[in-house]
Amino acid sequence: MSVLRADSRKTRQGYPLARRAARFRIPRVFPLLFALTAGILADPASPANAAPQYGAKAVAVAASKEGAPYARGATGPKRFDCSGLMIYSFRKAGRQLPRTAEQQYEQTSHVSRSDRALGDLVFFPKGSTVEHVGIYAGHDKIWHAPRPGTRVRLERIWSGNVRYGRAG
Fold first, then answer.
1. Does residue 82 have an active-site annotation?
2. Which of 3, 49, 82, 126 is 20 to 30 A removed from 159 (C-alpha atoms)?
3. What pLDDT digit, counting tens, does each position of 67-105 carry?
4. Are the C-beta atoms of 116 and 50 separated by less than 8 Å?
5. Active-site residue 132, yes or no?
6. Candidate list 132, 133, 135, 145, residue with the active-site label
7. Which residues in the chain land under pLDDT 70?
8. Regarding beta strands 129-138 and 121-126, do their DSSP bridges make them parallel or antiparallel, or are they unpaired?
């Protein structure tokens, strides 16, 4: 009987204990940060393809903007286009990038698919130009601002025709 009384008691604020505990939610970025940290500690990358520390920070910043609406030419903090999300994320991580995806590709050190690392930029070429950019989040996924009418999201890389670049 005492167990039933303990469960039905109310807190000082007047909320049932179970309802009060259910109100607490872990922000969506925390599981990502935990996974990134656990992955780094459990299986450290070799020095040749280890991501710079600012790359992981840039990924975390991009992830924190999940759901922000796409807006052409926007560089944050509430709206982004694809290259604007990269500018914002890397600026918060301590690196500067130029404005467009094409300029960002030109400024990065190009790396192969086998050498890509967390925080590398993923470029999607169209003809002789670069049409789109995202930030590599591991497991063949990128954070990006896809196109008008969409929001910042994590998505599997959908094309085999991509290029990788590391901000310096």
1. yes
2. 49
3. 999 999 999 999 999 999 999 999 999 999 999 999 999
4. no
5. yes
6. 132
7. 1-51
8. antiparallel
